[in-house]
Amino acid sequence: MNNSTATSQRWLYGPGPDLWLGCGLGYALVFVALTAFGSQIQAVLPLAMMPILTLALSVPHYGSTLLRVYEQRSDREKYKVFSVYLTVLVWALFVAGVYSNTAGSMLITLYLMWSPWHYMGQNYGIALMFLGRRGVKINGHIKRLIHLSFITSFLLALIEMQSLPSTGNHYRVMTLELPDTVRDYAFVITGTVYLYATVTAYGRLLKIATVKELFPAIMLTLTQALWFLVPLVAIRMNAFQDTVSLSIDTAVYAFFWIAIGHAVQYLWITAYYARKDNRTALTSVFLGKALFAGAMIWVIPGLLFAPGALGRLPYDAGFALLIAAAVNVHHFILDGAIWKLKNGAIARILLRDVSTEAGAGSGRSGAGLSGIRPVAGKLAFITVGLLCVGQNYYSSVATVTLNRAWEQGDISQMSRSIRNLGWLGRDSATYDSRLGVLMAEKGETGAAIMKGERAARLDPSQDTWGNLSVIYERAGNLGESMLAAKQAVWLAPESGKLADRLQYLLHRGLVQDADSRRTALTVAGEVLETFGHDNERLSAIAAGVLERQR
After folding, report:
1. CB of 293 closer than 8 Å to CB of 66
2. Counting beta carbons within 10 angstroms of the beta carbon of residue 135, is it exposed (0 to 12), middle (13 to 18) or buried (19 or more)?
3. Which SS3 state, helix, strand or coil, does residue 239 take?
4. Is 550 exposed, middle or buried (0-12, 13-18, 19+ CB in 10 A)?
5. pLDDT of residue 5
6. Which DSSP symbol is given to 246?
7. What is the rounded CA–CA span in Å between residue 294 and residue 315?
């Protein structure tokens, strides 16, 4: 074997692309940048703009799995249990979740708890792949130690998630709500096992291989730690909470970057496999098809089940998370079925770098069709794919524009952006409500009430009811303002801000006309009856109003 052949079998694309894209060196650089310059990066690329980046990188990684399972008839039949039966089950649960908060909560909880396992499994599998390509012969004990290292890093994330309270408005993330003591003991024990497994595994690996041979696996172990272990330890110890990469306050933003790192890693290996398996001649063609397929599975459910179509919830009131849950759980199921190094065809390509002709005879997704039908199918795929990519892109741009208009108090631009998002299946009760407040401030009370009432109907949350209370007050309807404030307090009785506002409105109602006084006394009585001694602050407010009337 000559040197060039040996080198090609050690890497997929070469040391540079493999280390930066596949082993997480690129994410490590992002992590350092977020730690050192997080605030500046957020200013240039705020959270609202992250969907545009995920469209280019994360959306195709879902599509690449769809292509792997559904593009060829042989694969559709081979994975029929997953491609048909379990797929129908997942999307049936999604439809149920559109109308049932309980079903939606189950699907969302499954997604969030399964997600770190999926990320862990990918890092573990690629680490074994690189060891295999380098001829590092590991026995069963070392393999179990490596696996234990990755599994315990997942368990640490799971323990942390299970210690959080079950929260949510329409949909709830259901957890065990582990007591702090149980969480801390579990964290320490699992962390100790993680350290033992990791140190012991690499200690034994270093006896049979060099650092150079182990470096890709070491990088993947480090990547796994940066994705989960390091942020969790920082939060547990309340350390580095002023950095974007480790702070609990910026965890959502940091996780977007982790998800992008995972997606890039996924595309790196699936594009290689597609080319070696003769499924595509050009990587760019594969990535384009993956983008179209991924955009479809994200966009079409959102359009079909938007509030103006078959659904009931606005996009930003839990519906977006429900779509994400269905797309990801479906992705996890398919991914777990198709990427197994024990599979002979996959092992030949990923471990031994042997091209196969398996895809050559079945590479046409329309196998068995002739004439115009395959062409029509391809044109339909391209057309629908382009439309879905366009919808995804323009809805992301419209959201950024809407946020900017809200910050600037630009009513006309907010109205246009909200209307455009509604056409794209992304209704926003939150921004309808905020627009209503701005309109009321400008004296457009009729339009403001329409916006506020629509928002409260679509998403009856403390924010929409609280804003509707403000709108009614500025429109001169104090009675309706008190009733809306009461609804807001009912949804968030722990909010001091809402309690103060309700107190202000009730006392103001006492000195207005007879109808306002009657409403104030009625609301105060309902508050006292509902909360009694369970909420001292609200009870005191209600009692004070009733006492003042006497």
Report:
1. yes
2. exposed
3. coil
4. exposed
5. 44
6. T
7. 19
Contact 306, 383 (CB under 8 A): no
Is the dihedral angle over the CA atoms 77, 78, 83, 89 positive or is it negative?
positive
Please give the structure tokens belonging to residue 28: 């490590």
- CA atoms of 233 and 438, how far apart (whole Å): 43
Q: For 173, list phi and psi in degrees, rounded to 5.
A: -85, 110
| One-letter amino acid for residue 187 of the chain | F
Select from 97, 98, 115, 117 the least CA-distant residue to 106.
Answer: 97
Instruction: Give the integer Cα–Cα distance in Å for 274 and 284.
Output: 11
Cα(462)–Cα(492) distance, rounded to whole angstroms? 6
In the numeric block, which tokens belong to residue 522? 């009625």
pTM: 0.90
Structure tokens at 344: 């002979």
Phi-psi region of 409 (alpha: psi -120 to 50; beta: other; left: phi over 0): left
Question: How remote is the C-alpha of 165 from its chain's centroid?
Answer: 19
Res 479: pLDDT = 93
Q: How far is CA 361 from CA 90, 268, 364, 372, 384, in A?
A: 31, 25, 8, 19, 26
Residues of the chain with pLDDT under 70: 1-8, 341-342, 344, 347, 352-373, 550
The C-alpha atoms of residue 408 and residue 414 are separated, in whole angstroms, by: 10
CB atoms within 10 A of CB 513: 11
Crossing angle for the helix pair 251-276 and 25-44, nearest 10 degrees?
Answer: 130
